Amino acid sequence: MIKNKFKGEPRAFDILGNIVLVKFDRKISVKAKKKFAAKIMKSNKAIKTVLEKTRGFQGRLRKQQTNWIAGEKTKEALYHENGCVFRLNIDKVYFSPRLSNERKEIASLIKRGDVLVMFAGVGPYSIVIAKNSKAEKVFSNEINREANRYAQLNIELNNLKGKVILVPGDIKRIAKKLEIFSSYSKKNPERGVWKPFKFDVIVMPRPQLKESFLKEAFTLSKKGTRIFYYDFCKADEINLIRDKIKSEAKKYKKRIKILKVKKTGEIAPYKFRVRVDFMIL
User: Whole-prediction pTM value?
Assistant: First the structure.
């Protein structure tokens, strides 16, 4: 998010590579919007398109709506972050450049093993982790077909074929498939002994949904699995999220240890995105 210092103009806007996304006040005229867009494009030659955000992210697919204001008539962005490149359509998939540092931090906390990223979108967490950590393989799950199409493209753009693996679909069904997805035991390969596939790290940058999807995370976890769980709440409700995680862990007979609770951004006045890091014991 870039803060704007000019009076009477939008206070902030997002830059996604070649595209600027602006939330204008309803009272601003079309002429004033175009004037502002021209100023932005003149000040930064890399910006080719200015779009107006007309509706925020909604639903499980987290789609938004935008209107073209000026520049090239496209809604496809090419965005760089943390040594990675991403292509995406702003109206068809969810993407937030404001989470760049958060993605970098998560990658820095992963030292080994296989990683599952739920609600992965076009692959920002999955690809940043694969590029900037010692993870062996990163499984990227997303229900939005259009997002998966871009995720596959982004895997190729970042030369990560074979390291980032798409597992598209509803995580509830995917979890059941992954639970029985298995490999030959290293101890007895000639006997064909099978073992359930479990993850060392699970990242859950989930949207604002009533369901926690912790059941699926617990199903795919093992002793030592670290889970990074995201939720949304008011400042005085953070302990409720902690309690919810503990309650669900007990329900599914998992012993856990809360490692860290962190505010990762204010999404509305007095409402925050919160990350809870915990480990399966």
Answer: 0.89
Q: Which CATH superfamily, name and number, covers 96-280? A: Vaccinia Virus protein VP39 (3.40.50.150)
Contact between 225 and 279 under an 8 Å Cβ cutoff? The reply is: yes
For residues 207 and 59, give the distance between their C-alpha atoms in angstroms, rounded to a whole number. 8
Determine the pLDDT at residue 208: 81
Please say if the pLDDT value at position 203 is more than 70. Answer: yes
Instruction: Return the CATH class of domain 2-74.
Output: alpha beta
